[in-house]
Amino acid sequence: MTAYQRKIFAIIASAWLVDQVDVALLTFLLGSIVVAFDLTPTQAGQLAAMTFAGQLAGNILAGTASDRFGRKMVFQVTMIVWGLASLAAAAAWSLTALMVCRFLIGVGVGGEAPVAQAMVSEIVPANVRGKYIAFMEGFWAIGYVLSGAISYFILPYLGWRWAFVVVGLLSGVVLLVRRAMPESPRWLADHGRHAEADAVMTMMEAEVMRRSGKPLPPVPHLAAAAIPTPHQNPIATLFSPEYRLRTVMAFGMWFFALIGFFGINSWIAVLLKEKGFSIVGSVGFVTLITIGGIPGFFTAALSLEKIGRKVTTAAFLICSAVAAYFYGNAVDQTTLFITGFIMQFFMFGMWSCLYAYTPELYPTRARSTGAGFASAFGRIGAILGPMIVPVLVQNYGPAVAFQVGAGGFLIAAMLVVTLGVETRGMVLENVSH
Fold it and tell me: How far, in Å, CA of 215 to CA of 209, rounded?
């Protein structure tokens, strides 16, 4: 690992950071938008849901396209889609127009996720691969803070529309930076473009030697790359006998983990209100306990490399379940804060595990497709969680939201334990077998 790989990682992570700024923007602007368009609570909820729906579509479309047309091109297109959609949102003249823009923002942002996972997996060395993908996921927390800062300084003076303009312009800056990023040599080789793959590898090797100041280490022994059967597309690969169980595990892991995460997060404020917090007080409280997620990211990143993908992922899911149960049943504010801090620690770390583990489960020809479809199943869980929980809360109280969330985490952990494979430190070609 040298400064060259870190530069490529920084380019990919910068896009991840900026698109999370755009996703989080609605959180801070929704109050002003409700007033501007005189929205009912139902309409506000529908507007918020459009981003999830767009992400689901983007996960599938861009993930599949990336395996067919290349990582670099699709990565650029996703940035253009959500950047232009953000600028268009600034000019939205109605709720319908704004919902369409938020859907397209979701498509672009959701499309970036599987492509970014695949690119980092294919360029960063095997011995630090999981750590760097986990660190990349941690950039969304920084993006959330930046989104709040942009809203804080722009909203009072220029209004909500200009916040969308600023983020749209940021996408243009990152788009220019991305021009320095090479195509994945693994993808080129997998598509028979050997001369181009060799040219990219030669350039990378020269950069690494120049920056490290020493000759390259010996090439490790690799398993022969699996040869796809004629006409086998990436989706068929996911359900082929070699990868079928991994696919069941990955899809189920994302689905139940996100049912748990979003089912819980949609009811944190309700539980706090029941415990006596004001609206302003609950916002401050949630902000404080969310700080617990920052060390959660770093701990997960280090554990993925030290302990392993399978054990770390299962452990963070199980600990998220335990913390969520105790948080939902806390009897006083002190216990609420301690259990909430611990809950966010493990839930944020869980996200790092999901993003680091998933792209390693599949061969190059289906890596981005697999990550995209798994994430899409997660988006279905993200939509269903907040829909299922209110029905139960109405009859049994807010604490049941955290019990449902804990159940989702435990099912996800069970799938990892029973069907997961260990990928720590393995070169991708060997993991593919």
Answer: 6
* Residue predicted with more confidence, 88 or 144: 88
DSSP 268-305: HHHHHHHTT--HHHHHHHHHHHHTTHHHHHHHHHHHHH
- Residue 425 — very low, low, confident or very high, per pLDDT cuts 50/70/90? low
Query: Whole-angstrom distance between the N-terminal and C-terminal Cα of the chain?
Result: 25
Q: Give the model confidence (pLDDT) of 82-125 as tens digits.
A: 888 888 988 888 888 988 988 998 888 888 878 887 888 788 88
User: Which residue segments constitute the domains of the chain, with CATH numbers given?
Assistant: 1-181 (1.20.1250.20), 233-433 (1.20.1250.20)
SS3 per-residue string spanning 330-350: CCCHHHHHHHHHHHHHHHHHH
Amino acid sitting at position 165: V
DSSP state of 162: H
| CA angle in degrees (0–180, nearest 5) for 250-252-258 | 100
Decide if pLDDT at 252 tops 90.
Answer: yes
Q: pLDDT digit string (tens) for 148-159?
A: 677 777 777 787
Side chain identity, residue 220: P
Residue 181 · residue 11 · CB < 8 Å: yes
pLDDT value of position 276: 63
> What are the CB-based long-range contacts (under 8 Å, 24+) for 280-289?
285/336, 285/337, 285/340, 288/337, 288/341, 289/337, 289/340, 289/341, 289/343, 289/344
The pLDDT of residue 227 is: 53
Instruction: State the DSSP string of 136-156.
Output: HHHHHHHHHHHHHHHHHHHHH
Positive or negative, the CA dihedral 391, 396, 399, 403 is: negative
- Residue 42: the pLDDT is 66
**Per-residue pLDDT band at 33 (split at 50, 70, 90):** confident
Residue reference for tokens 């940021």: 170
**Which residues are CB-contacts of 389 (< 8 A; sequence separation ≥ 6)?**
263, 266, 267, 400, 401, 404
